[in-house]
Amino acid sequence: MIKWLGWFSLAGFSGLGIWIFGYTPIESSQGFSQKIMYLHVPVIMMAYLASFLVVLGSVGYLWKREMMFDRLAKSSAELAMLFFAMALVSGSIWGKPTWGTYWTWDARLTTTLLAFLIYVGYVTLRSFAHPGEKQARLAAVIGIIAFLDIPLIHVSVQWWRTLHQPTTLLKTVGGEAKPAADPVLLYPLFASFLLMAVFFAYLLLLRLRVEAGEEELAEQLARQ
User: Fold this and answer.
1) Residue 100, helix vs strand vs coil
2) Which of 92, 118, 133, 154 to pair with 31, CA 20 to 30 A apart?
């Protein structure tokens, strides 16, 4: 299954690239640079998903003390770090032609950077601290604390003055969903979400399998 998810992701992204660069129109206000939206928005959503899985695994481990939860938290944290990094890089590339700068201490950028740094710390702890229950408990606490930054990222454009535009995909008018984007731009974006989710599942399952193999090898070495 993992192999097929990988091949599907590769084929899907190839087709999506042709659709986006060959058939979607040039956005009137931002021009060609708007096309990076089809990467930037899905990767930040996958970073949110990875963060949710980290806190799910962390709470599960503290509650049940079962290694499958710790394995989920550890693998998801690595993906959260990866996708937050991709979001920061793609956002900076998008920001240069749109805002005139690669980086500014905008509220959303700053809170996103904070999340990335927390997960860097989490992964560093898991890489260098002595493995065992104490490490897993400490990592679980960090994983839960890290998730507190996710709602802050989302509401930062409402709470503070920010260069980021307010939400467009989740915009509602009179209680009804009214996305502030033309369907010709929304359809490839939704396809990007779908393919990025498949790619995320591929990376997560692959990392979980590697982690399980490493744990089995460590147990075998300990018995010798």
Assistant:
1) coil
2) 154
Q: What pTM does this model have?
A: 0.89
Q: What is the dihedral of CA 16, 21, 22, 25, to 10 degrees?
A: 110
Q: d(Cα 216, Cα 73) in Å, to the nearest integer?
A: 18
Domain CATH for 30: 1.20.120
- 189 and 170 Cβ atoms separated by less than 8 Å: no
Q: Which domain holds residue 168?
A: 2-223
Q: Give the model confidence (pLDDT) of 17-33 as tens digits.
A: 999 998 888 877 777 87
Tokens of 139: 């990592």
Concatenated DSSP letters of 155-199: HHHHHS--SSPPPSTT-EETTEE--SS-HHHHHHHHHHHHHHHHH
